[in-house]
Amino acid sequence: MHRVLISDPLAEEGLRILEAAEGIEVVNTPGLKGDELKSVLAECDGVIIRSGTTITADLLQRPSKLRVIVRAGAGVDNIEVPAATREGIVVMNTPGGNTLSTAEHTIALLLALSRHVPAADLSLREGRWDRKKYTGSQLAGKTLGVIGLGRVGLAVAKRAIGLEMNILGYDPFLSAERAAELGIESVSDPEDIYPRADIVTVHVPLGEQTKGMVGKSQMAKLRKGAAVINCARGGIVDEDALLEALESGHLSGAALDVYSSEPCTDSPLFKLPNVVVTPHLGASTQEAQLNVAIEAANLIVNYLQKGNIRFAVNMASLEPSELEEARRHLDICRRLGLFQAQLAKGAISKATITYQGEAAKKKTSLLTTAFAMGLLENSLEEEVNLINARVLAEERGITIVEKISSEHSDFATLVRVEVESDQGTTVLAATTRGRQFVRLVRIGSYRLDSIMDGTMVVYVHQDKPGLIGLVGTVLGKHGVNIAGMTVGREVEGGEATGILAVDGVPCPEALQEIRADDRISAVHVVKLPACGEMPPSFG
Ligand SMILES: NC(=O)C1=CN([C@@H]2O[C@H](COP(=O)(O)OP(=O)(O)OC[C@H]3O[C@@H](n4cnc5c(N)ncnc54)[C@H](O)[C@@H]3O)[C@@H](O)[C@H]2O)C=CC1
Ligand SMILES: O=C(O)CCC(=O)C(=O)O
């Protein structure tokens, strides 16, 4: 049974999906905080949050069962994503479900601001017929500066074009050509927006680079009488600088849906009549809440039931069909990692993974993570998975380099790994056989062909008659049955490598006896999962 905590209010339709899902137990207790939240989280496999819950590193500390965090919404700034990644917890969001509602709310604030709707409303309710005081400004013909032209920013721009506004935009990922097609004049430096805009609206995620991006110097560049809207995240517009610019009369107004600390019920900005405020309502429509709740519920159910990952913010997402396609290669890479970990001597400092043929066309960053997972999974106390393996490798000073080779090889698909340690370099290469088997086709300079399955005895010996028999005899004497054998050599009479697939794990005495023969220079036992056996994160 997988337990899922709902820690913020979620639309009924999402709850119903969770309750109907097989093997899912729902813990619907919005509003938990501090230690109580931590102890409930530790007993849950997954959690669905909105903006009311902040997931800190402390809440994620092991021991905890938590494997997945789903944000029913777009912004993940209320989750310490690097800490989740470190603990192997996948973080997913539901982008798109609340885009239109948030864009509409931005337009609502834009209109309310330009026509003083909240102040005029209050004044009339208080018995004043003040028509002159609330003379506004027309939006048609004005310039709206849009910073961040992703889903919400573009939807805002499209709607503002409908209001006959001119749009000046900046987003590092939107080309000038595409912007022009959409009727947006794009600039290559956001600083160019401020002197030309009548109103600036931000639609970027909150992060190191965007925190305070509309600050004192940007406000100074704005024309006198300009206005600012923040419907993205508190802190992107510097609240102190905004207050100063409004109080000095340099800015004519501001509209805010989000605050640097939430909930926020007391701010000097709330005392200014030319500031329109709402309590983080951008996504608060029935439609948006329905969309994100259904999407969040489906994401968590599919992950917990089938291992499917979509909209992950801390790993490459794979559609179920892509995952099915990638599984064989994930399996090759993890097995190479497991093999390397048992073969390489000394402290590993670098691993270079080269993809050739079919492998080169896959999501290689994910395959590389599968290799790192295999390399570390038997050495560390903590769970190593497709989310945290690269971070854990980095933490241990292992540099992982990924290469794509267009060279022709004898195999339709080939993954080669070269692991460097303080005691030398180990090279392995593998390919597939059929849908289920992984074939090791190279160890160091030896070419061979061995199925990477179960327990294997790998030894390096002089290429002389009788040595394979000797190893077999010793293993037989110690009750170890040999199920298969492969030998690879460079030149006749030189050194060769043998791999025996064995039915049991040889005891230390048997290995000692084999090592005692000075014609055998190395013996290793490598234990791999049975063919086809894969971890849950491979789907
Ligand atoms: N008020 C509310 O209730 C809601 C607020 N939001 C906020 O709006 C933000 C945007 O949401 P979406 O449009 O769905 O995200 P998105 O990911 O589709 O768009 C964000 C855009 O910002 C751009 N960007 C990033 N750094 C930038 C920078 N330094 N300068 C200019 N552009 C930059 C990105 O290239 C991207 O195109 C979210 O991160 C969230 O914080 C989203 C939904 C509801
Ligand atoms: O959860 C909410 O209602 C807020 C939505 C939001 O801010 C987001 O999706 O980023």
What are the SSEs and their pairings?
Elements: E1 2-6, H1 12-20, E2 24-28, H2 34-42, E3 46-49, E4 68-71, H3 81-86, E5 90-93, H4 99-114, H5 117-125, E6 143-147, H6 151-162, E7 166-170, H7 176-181, E8 185-186, E9 199-202, H8 216-221, E10 226-230, H9 239-247, E11 251-256, E12 275-277, H10 286-306, H11 320-343, E13 348-357, H12 364-376, H13 389-395, E14 399-405, E15 413-421, E16 424-433, E17 437-443, E18 446-451, E19 455-462, H14 467-477, E20 482-489, E21 495-502, H15 508-515, E22 520-527
Helix pairs in contact: 1-10, 4-6, 11-12, 12-13, 14-15
Bound molecules: 1,4-dihydronicotinamide adenine dinucleotide and 2-oxoglutaric acid.
Keywords: Amino-acid biosynthesis, NAD, Oxidoreductase, Serine biosynthesis
Pathway: Amino-acid biosynthesis; L-serine biosynthesis; L-serine from 3-phospho-D-glycerate: step 1/3
Domain ACT: 456-533
Question: What does this 3D model show about the protein?
Answer:
It holds the Pfam family PGDH_inter. Pathway: Amino-acid biosynthesis; L-serine biosynthesis; L-serine from 3-phospho-D-glycerate: step 1/3. GO terms for molecular function: NAD binding; phosphoglycerate dehydrogenase activity. This protein has helices at residues 12-20, 34-42, 81-86, 99-114, 117-125, 151-162, 176-181, 216-221, 239-247, 286-306, 320-343, 364-376, 389-395, 467-477, 508-515; strands at 2-6, 24-28, 46-49, 68-71, 90-93, 143-147, 166-170, 185-186, 199-202, 226-230, 251-256, 275-277, 348-357, 399-405, 413-421, 424-433, 437-443, 446-451, 455-462, 482-489, 495-502, 520-527. With 539 residues, the chain is α/β, with parallel strands linked by helices. It has 4 domains: 2-96 and 287-306, Rossmann fold, CATH 3.40.50; 99-277, NAD(P)-binding Rossmann-like Domain (Rossmann fold, 3-Layer(aba) Sandwich), CATH 3.40.50.720; 319-444, 2-Layer Sandwich (60s Ribosomal Protein L30, Chain: A), CATH 3.30.1330; 453-529, ACT domain (Alpha-Beta Plaits), CATH 3.30.70.260. It binds 1,4-dihydronicotinamide adenine dinucleotide and 2-oxoglutaric acid. The site of 1,4-dihydronicotinamide adenine dinucleotide (NAI) has 33 residues, from helix 4 and helix 6.
